[in-house]
Write a structure and sequence with these properties.
single chain; alpha+beta; five-stranded antiparallel sheet; three-stranded antiparallel sheet; 8 strands
């Protein structure tokens, strides 16, 4: 991926914006080399279904270009099929393919979660979309009980309070309760919300919260 990044980086020293294509040598492969591309594609893009949910960040262009290269190479049955395409034109074909992948990525990043209005149920609290009570004063919100070992809860939704405190709404029998999460879950909660923003809903569902050796963990079952 680093080599791909270097090959696609323009020479900004000349202060000109120019199209940067891969050298034709990237596509001069034998069957063994093409087979390695196909194996990488199978492992990263097919077998590992949750690859994208494990990647978090703003600057994902290098990863998108790398995935695009694996997908592009996987289209060819063998090295002879690559040779039949003309090595000089393949860089242009891949450039179009990668630009389309980047455009799709930007569309996903640009998605916004819909605004859902809450029900004002009292002077000191409101009801969230799951019907759980949320206090305006976060100090009054109960903390999710997480004891040492494994704690499984049916999670309906995950969000944040007005000061950035991670919150989770739990189904408890016929009742729904909104709890604060320990601060250590902030990054995890942000990742789950980010996945929802990209169209991948990880909850509602059962979540295993655990506390081991002073460290907090969460596994979506």
């Amino acid at each position: 991926m680093q080599s791909l990044k270097k090959a696609l980086t323009n020479d900004y020293a000349n202060e000109r914006i120019e199209k940067t294509l891969l050298e034709p040598g990237w596509f001069i492969l034998d069957d063994r080399q093409l087979g390695l591309y196909k194996k990488l594609y199978q492992i990263i893009c097919v077998d590992n279904k949750y690859w994208y949910s494990t990647y978090s960040g703003i600057y994902s262009d290098d990863l998108v270009a790398f995935i695009a290269l694996l997908q592009f190479m996987s289209q060819f049955e063998n090295a002879e099929a690559l040779r039949n395409e003309n090595y000089d034109i393949l860089p242009e074909h891949f450039n179009t393919f990668a630009c389309q992948a980047l455009q799709e990525r930007y569309a996903v990043v640009g998605n916004k979660l819909p605004i859902e209005f809450v029900q004002n149920a009292g002077d000191d609290f409101f009801l969230n979309q799951r019907g759980a009570k949320v206090f305006y004063d976060e100090s009054r919100q109960p903390l999710l009980p997480i004891t040492k070992g494994k704690n499984v809860y049916k999670v309906l939704s995950i969000g944040f309070g007005n000061t950035g405190t991670p919150m989770v709404t739990i189904e408890n029998g016929r009742e729904t309760v909104c709890y604060k999460l320990p601060f250590e879950y902030s990054e995890w909660a942000m990742t789950v919300v980010g996945c929802v923003n990209m169209g991948e809903k990880l909850v509602p569902g059962e979540v295993l919260f655990s506390l081991e050796n002073g460290k907090y963990y969460a596994d979506i079952l």
